[in-house]
TrEMBL record:
SUPFAM superfamilies: DNA/RNA polymerases (SSF56672). This is Transposon Tf2-9 polyprotein. It comes from Araneus ventricosus (Orbweaver spider). Residues 1-78 form the Reverse transcriptase domain. Gene3D superfamilies: 3.30.70.270. GO terms for biological process: DNA biosynthetic process. It holds the Pfam family RVT_1. PROSITE patterns: RT_POL (PS50878). InterPro entries: DNA/RNA_pol_sf, Retrovirus_Pol_polyprotein, Rev_trsase/Diguanyl_cyclase, RT_dom. PANTHER family: INTEGRASE CATALYTIC DOMAIN-CONTAINING PROTEIN, PROTEIN CBG26694.
């Protein structure tokens, strides 16, 4: 049986180990490198690799991706233009069936909530539904 707070511990350790490196984004066991150019990316990557070596940290070669122009991550797509919702998640929301009861409506609102940062005045637009 594992430790129930293991993800938080892992997040903390990764933050301690790599959090000071500019351009490194950390989420639990994932490290993302965000850079404006390949040169900058490679400089940040070199710092991460050097730090990992000094701490005897190994990365899973089957999971590592280098120099990708776009990353699907946590239901979003990140690229040089910024962040947008993952089209697959949007499709799932668009294809939702009309809710038939309060519980189904709450589920729909939960899924719609994922898109709130991309919909101006989301709260106003969904207020009537939340009042049902």
């Amino acid at each position: 049986m594992g430790i129930s707070c293991a993800p938080e511990i892992f997040q903390k350790r990764n933050q301690e180990n790599f959090g000071d490196i500019q351009g490194v984004l950390i989420y639990f066991d994932d490290l993302l490198i965000a850079a404006n150019s390949i040169k900058e990316h490679d400089e940040i990557l070199a710092k991460v690799v050097q730090r990992a070596k000094s701490l005897n940290i190994k990365f899973n070669k089957n999971k590592v991706q280098f120099r990708v122009p776009e990353v699907k991550y946590l239901g979003h797509v990140f690229n040089v233009a910024g962040m947008r919702p993952d089209p697959e998640r949007v499709k799932a929301v668009v294809e939702l069936k009309e809710p038939k009861n309060k519980l189904e409506l709450q589920r729909v609102l939960g899924m719609l909530n994922y898109l709130r940062r991309f919909v101006p005045h989301f709260s106003t637009k969904t207020a009537a539904l939340r009042e049902l």
